[in-house]
Design a protein that fits this description.
The chain has 313 residues and is mainly beta. It has five helices and 14 strands. The chain has two domains: 158 residues, no CATH class; 122 residues, Nuclear Transport Factor 2, Chain: A (Roll), CATH 3.10.450. It is 13% helix and 34% strand.
C-alpha cells in the first residue's frame, strides 16, 4: 500500500515537479573555437582514483594544476605549480561550477600537439575530475593553448566547460516522516541537507522491517554527479522491480543545489503487502547529454526493494 503525503521540504529553494536543467554555455577566453576533441560530451567518469601525477609530463601537470586552482577560485597570484605558469588570469571560474571542498581526483589527457613551425607553441585537451568527501563528482573539459618559455609556461588561450557523466550516481535514503522535519529546517547547502538526511535515515538492512510495520516516510535520492543540460530524473515506487508504478510525477519534489546537484524527495505512507512488494526505481533521461533518440529514452540508473520479496516469488 502506498499513499502520497502532501508536505513541502526545503522551502528556501525552488521546488519543481520534474528536474529539467536550462542550457549552460561554455566559459571561454580562447581566441579560436575549441576542436571536436574538446567539445564532445560523451565522457564517462572513471573509477575515482588518485591522479598519477608521475605519469604526466611536467608541462601537462603544470597546466592542469593552474587550471584546477583557478576553477576552484584561487587568484592568479595564489596559483602554485611545479613549473611556473604565467597568465593564468585568462582562466575564468564560473559561479555555476562551485568547487569548495573538492579535490582533483584524476587528470585525463585527451590529446596534445605542437605547431610545426614553432614547437614552443602548444595545445593540450584534457579532463579534470574533482571529488569531495560526500562522494560528489564534478568534471570539466578544457582545451588550453600555451607557450613554453625559458623558465615558465605562458597560457595563451583557454576554453573550458563543465561536463556530466553518461549516467548519474545517486544515494537514496528512507527517512521516517517525523524525523524528516529536520530537513525542512535546513537552510544551508547540499552538505548540511545530506547530513540531516543521513542522521535521520533508516539503515538499508532495516528497510524490510520498517516497511512491514508501515508508516509515513520520505524517500530522498541525493544526486552525486552534476545533472546534464536538459536531463530528467524520475523517482518511482513500483510493485516489484519491473511492475506497475504506484506514484505520480507530481508527487515528487526536486531541489537543485549549486553545481546542479539534484535531490529528489517523495513523502508517502508506505505499507508492505505480501502480494505486492514495494521497490524504488530511479530513471534518467539524458536530454542534451546524448544523441538521437537516446536523448528522450529513460535509462534505469538504480533499483532496490523497500521490502523482502514474498517466499517463492
Amino acid at each position: 500500500m502506498i499513499k502520497h503525503i502532501r508536505t513541502v521540504f526545503y522551502a528556501p529553494l525552488s521546488i519543481m515537479l520534474v528536474l529539467t536543467l536550462a542550457a549552460c554555455p561554455a566559459a571561454t577566453s580562447r581566441k579560436t573555437q575549441p576542436t571536436e576533441a574538446a567539445t564532445s560530451t560523451d565522457f564517462v567518469f572513471p573509477a575515482f582514483v588518485e591522479a598519477d601525477s608521475a605519469a604526466l609530463p611536467d608541462e601537462f601537470k603544470a597546466v592542469a594544476a593552474s587550471l584546477a586552482q583557478r576553477l576552484a577560485g584561487a587568484s592568479p597570484q595564489a596559483v602554485k605549480t611545479l613549473v611556473p605558469v604565467d597568465n593564468s588570469a585568462i582562466v575564468a571560474p564560473r559561479d555555476d561550477f562551485p568547487l569548495d571542498g573538492f579535490q582533483v581526483a584524476e587528470v585525463q589527457i585527451l590529446g596534445a600537439q605542437a605547431r610545426a613551425d614553432d614547437p614552443a607553441e602548444r595545445a593540450v585537451a584534457l579532463v579534470l575530475l574533482f571529488v569531495d568527501s560526500y562522494g560528489r563528482a564534478a568534471a570539466a573539459k578544457a582545451l588550453v593553448d600555451y607557450r613554453i618559455e625559458r623558465d615558465s609556461i605562458a597560457l595563451t588561450g583557454v576554453a573550458w566547460f563543465p561536463i556530466s557523466p553518461a549516467l548519474p550516481n545517486f544515494e537514496t535514503f528512507l527517512i521516517p516522516l517525523p524525523a524528516a522535519g529536520a530537513l525542512s529546517q535546513t537552510t544551508a547547502g547540499y552538505r548540511d541537507f545530506y547530513d540531516a538526511a543521513a542522521r535521520a535515515a533508516v539503515p538499508r538492512a532495516d528497510f524490510a522491517e520498517r516497511i512491514a510495520e508501515g508508516g509515513e516516510f520520505v524517500i530522498a535520492a541525493f544526486g552525486k554527479t552534476r545533472a546534464a543540460e536538459g536531463s530528467r530524473i524520475a523517482l518511482e515506487v513500483s510493485v516489484g522491480p519491473e511492475g506497475e508504478t504506484l506514484n505520480q510525477p507530481s508527487d515528487i519534489q526536486a531541489v537543485i543545489f549549486p553545481g546542479d546537484y539534484p535531490v529528489l524527495l517523495y513523502p508517502a505512507e508506505l505499507q508492505a503487502e505480501t502480494d505486492a512488494p514495494l521497490w524504488v526505481r530511479l530513471l534518467y533521461t539524458p536530454g542534451a547529454g546524448a544523441t538521437g533518440q537516446a536523448r528522450q529514452r529513460a535509462v534505469l540508473v538504480d533499483v532496490f526493494p523497500l521490502a523482502e520479496e514474498p517466499a517463492g516469488s
